Amino acid sequence: MGFVQVIFGVLSLSLFDDNLSTVFFKTGLATMAAAMIALAFRRNTGFRRISFRDALLFATLTWVVMGLLGALPIYFITGVNFSDAVFESVSGLTTTGATILTGLDSMPKSFLMYRQFLNFMGGLGVVIFVVAVLPMLDAGGMRLLKAETPGPIKDDKLTPRVAKTAHYLWYIYLLLTVLCALSFYFGGMSAFDAIGHSFSAVATGGFSPHDSSMGFFESHLLLAIANVFMLLGAFNFAVHYVVLHGKSFRPYWRDDETRIFLLIIAFLGLALAVQLFLMRVYESFGESLSYAFFMLISFITSTGFIAADMSQWPQQTILLLIFVAYLGGCAGSTAGGNKIVRNILTFKMMRLQFYRLVHPRGSFSIFYNGKAVGPSVRKAVMGFMTLAALSSIVITLLLMATGLGFLESISATAATLNLTGPAFGALLNNFQPVSDVGIWILSAAMVLGRLEYFTVLALFSPLFWRY
């Protein structure tokens, strides 16, 4: 993080010339000094193999420490209190996209690009980046990758060595980001906006240098381009690898999760567009179709871009967007939410119980991508879904205890746990109305959702450390 801040100090001095270089240099050098001191103590302890407990602790502390350090420039540049600065930093790094800032259009460009870059860094995961650039962690690297990578099935590797796997993932990530930036630029954005929005679109992060987000451009072409790259960011990156390696798009449709993900979007997007048109929210069906698909894709991929005035939409559409935020994108992607594969398996397990009720003596199995799903994966999925529901209830109640209304509390919980970003009610534009206590609760919720509950909550179990 310190190195990144120093780089933005150089950019502020040489490219943007907005007098923020001193802030970036000071925070960056202080962070790098702290890192070198910690590294000096680490060398004295000797090297040992990374255990699974170490991996979980490392993954969690990475997001916490990076969030705190990333908040320093935000704190000194914007003048917000430290709680809000940490919230903004964690929101960027976890690719949530929720914000407490206003007046973005008039802020210095080096700061705005730094904020966008937080989304880019968090997109594929800081932990995977560390595994890619520090081969010494390859001794326990797969454990780190398991702790960080979303999804219930984490034993598959693209290549035998986890460092090479992480490199391939980053190559794909960079390729998509470059293509997105070029597409935005030729679609009508300035170079600054094109690069900044590409950082958040592929990362499904949702930060924008403008208060009105993608609505600033008033361009349906740019919304369509954003749709494509939000979807690509929400696809399993392992499937991207197979597509690029085989030079064929067929694996996208052959993969159960990707295919069902696209079908859900097609069905719900069309239904939402029809509803908006019939209720005369927009004058033409084409306009209704554009905004419906954009907002649906933005929420289901956990990106959180905004292009429409949501206060004019029917109340039932708000519930739909909260619902699709919980569905989430594909496992192994930059998206948040419960992940489509878990929803598929949950539906199949419910159907299996119905079959057993009708045919008590029958023998049934659950298949995913042509392979039988074992009991351990089924139990893990049900455990995750239960924990996600309980976490949502608890955090909603905690936020209501701080003084937030029900709509604000439940939508803010969904926005942070699922890394979606926007909430509703009084929080429609930003999270400034939330108290400092509520801000810390939501910051913790973002880390909890980013690391998919168990990685964080296991650290608080005495049994986890005992054996």
Q: Beta-strand percentage?
A: under 5%
Which descriptor suits the 3D outline? globular
Give a count of the beta strands, DSSP E runs of length 2 or more: 2
Helicity level: 55-70%
Number of alpha- plus pi-helical segments: 21
Secondary-structure-derived class: mainly alpha
For the residues shown, what is the average pLDDT?
87
SSE pattern, N- to C-terminal: HHHHHHHHHHHHHHHHEEHHHHH
Q: Strands across the major sheet, in which order?
A: 1-2
Radius of gyration: 22 Å
Major sheet size, sense and barrel closure: 2 strands, antiparallel
Poorly predicted residue ranges: 132-143
Beginning-to-end CA distance, first to last residue: 34 Å
Outline the secondary-structure elements.
Elements: H1 2-16, H2 21-44, H3 52-78, H4 82-93, H5 109-124, H6 126-133, H7 141-148, H8 162-186, H9 191-202, H10 220-234, H11 237-246, H12 250-254, H13 256-278, H14 285-300, H15 315-327, H16 340-358, E1 367-368, E2 371-372, H17 375-401, H18 406-417, H19 436-450, H20 454-457, H21 462-466
Helix pairs in contact: 1-2, 1-5, 2-3, 3-4, 3-7, 4-5, 4-19, 5-9, 6-8, 8-9, 8-10, 8-11, 10-14, 13-14, 14-15, 16-17, 17-18, 18-19
